[in-house]
Design a protein that fits this description.
The protein is mainly alpha-helical. It has 18 helices and no strands.
């Protein structure tokens, strides 16, 4: 059994972990690229209509199942039964496994931007290994290192994810500080003009002025808040979880929503949409670096510095946001290598698994299950890196299948909430006391999530990309069927 029993996670630590897992400046810059100031309204709507209600529901779950080791699996099993919990959590786990696959490779692009100011990975090679193969090997090494460090205990995960969250907050302050200098120096005149109230509702981007395009952005805004359910897997490591978890989620939700809105406004004071964002060289992959480079450059211009110094400040800010992105990605990686697999394996009935799978190491970690996950991830990365065009197509299919699978827990957790409340499980935190309005809210959030998923599946059809549409829609169905079959098999062969 585990020897690591200390309650390591306090409210401030949890808030930092939430920010590290959910908040990303990339979501700010992408919102600005697509909608400019108008993105604020939809981020507020997404926060109020989806994120905040979900956080309160998660808080109630966490308060009731405060010592549950299985996180969302335990929440679902205690509300609607083990079979549905198994299926819902498996779909969710599959999506995060695919996220680990992609992030292990994307991390090196971020590192390249940090070191060289731009993405140079396409030119990386060693001997006969081209860039794709080399990045694949580096990604596998990274997964192995992260898994090994994570298997050493929750303490390391907490420290790294907290550091990532803290660094992201520091970058927010740097961004605000630089923006304020620019605002004062320019006498409050924003780089992107504010032309009446319509500026905050109508995008200057012609591609985002139709109802369909706006809906697609709303879906993006909603899913920019995804990930808070992952912290349910560490409630058993919190100090006074029945109070820490609700308080941490609430503070984290307010800070996340506020940060998104404030950062979009601040971006407008240094980045003119038509002069910078509308250029063909700017895309959703590099827009974050473009925004920060422009911020540094414009701060120098506003202070009357030389052109060379302005460019230096631009490069400095580019590297700072790359470092923040790297720290945030590391923090998220350490959490997501551990919490989904822990929720699924430790939360479920141990009789469903071979004894070795559920066994905890001396640090209290399901090390064997984590290493099985690492092997699966590494095999996928290897096949993609060395498999040529067929493997690339396979990877694209996997990516498409995982697109909406991440949203599976919200369908299950939100839908299960009324059943959870009817069980009258003792809990110190109760956000929803009126049953009627609770049902209204549940249906409202459930419809929002389902519409988001449906539209995500329909969007490729509108773009005549029928293959992507098919795999996007089939992903959660396929993973759900696999989970169903796996559960039935495990139940029939369960250990006595």
């Amino acid at each position: 059994m585990a020897t690591e029993k200390k309650k390591l996670i306090t409210t401030p630590t949890l808030v930092l972990m939430i920010i590290s897992t959910i908040y990303g400046f990339g979501n700010v810059s992408i919102a600005y690229a697509q909608m400019s100031y108008a993105g604020m309204f939809w981020y507020i709507i997404g926060g109020i209509c989806f994120f905040f209600p979900c956080c309160l529901m998660m808080a109630e779950y966490g308060s009731a199942f405060n010592e549950a080791k299985g996180g969302i699996y335990s929440w679902l099993a205690g509300s609607i039964g083990e079979k549905l919990a198994f299926i819902g959590t498996f779909i969710w786990l599959a999506s995060w496994v695919l996220w680990i696959v992609s992030s292990a490779s994307r991390l090196w692009i971020t590192l390249s931007a940090l070191l060289f100011g731009r993405d140079t990975t396409q030119s990386w090679h060693i001997g006969s290994l081209g860039s794709t193969q080399l990045i694949g090997i580096l990604a596998i090494i990274f997964v192995i290192v992260v898994t090994w460090l994570s298997s050493r205990g929750i303490n390391g995960i907490t420290k790294i994810s907290s550091f990532g969250g803290a660094f992201m907050i520091i970058m927010n302050f740097i961004f605000i500080f630089a923006s304020l200098i620019t605002i004062v120096a320019n006498h409050g005149v924003p780089a992107q003009p504010i032309d009446g109230i319509k500026t905050f509702f109508v995008s200057p981007n012609p591609s985002f002025q139709t109802p369909i395009a706006i809906i697609s952005f709303v879906v993006y805004a909603i899913f920019a808040y995804a990930g808070m359910e992952n912290l349910g897997g560490v409630t058993d490591s919190m100090k006074n979880p029945s109070k820490t978890f609700p308080k941490g989620l609430t503070i984290g939700a307010v800070l996340t929503i506020g940060s998104y809105v404030l950062m979009i406004v601040m971006t407008g004071f240094s980045v003119n949409y038509n002069q910078v964002i509308a250029k063909l060289s700017v895309n959703l992959g590099n827009v974050t670096y473009v925004v920060f480079h422009r911020l540094g450059y414009m701060m120098g211009v506003s202070l009357g510095l030389s052109h060379g110094v302005n460019l230096f400040l631009g490069d400095l800010f580019t590297r700072l946001i790359a470092l923040a992105g790297l720290m945030g990605m590391l923090g998220a990686m350490f959490i997501l290598v551990y919490t989904p697999i822990k929720s699924f394996i430790i939360g479920s009935n141990p009789d469903l698994w071979p004894a070795r799978v559920t066994k905890l190491n001396r640090h209290g970690m399901p090390a064997f299950a984590m290493w099985v996950q690492a092997v699966i991830v590494s095999v996928i990365i290897f096949l993609v890196a060395f498999g040529g065009s067929a493997a690339a197509s396979f990877y694209q299919i996997l990516t498409d299948m995982g697109n909406v699978s991440t949203c599976a827990p919200y369908i299950f957790l939100v839908g299960a909430f009324p059943a959870f409340q009817r069980k009258d499980i003792p809990r110190e935190f109760i956000a929803f006391k009126n049953r009627f309005w609770t049902m209204v809210l549940v249906w409202f959030v459930e419809i929002i999530v389902c519409l988001g998923i449906i539209f995500t599946c329909i969007q490729p059809i509108l773009d005549h990309d029928y293959q992507t549409a098919f795999w996007t829609a089939i992903g959660p169905i396929f993973f759900g069927i696999v989970a169903w079959v796996l559960y039935d098999y495990a139940s029939k062969h369960a250990r006595a």
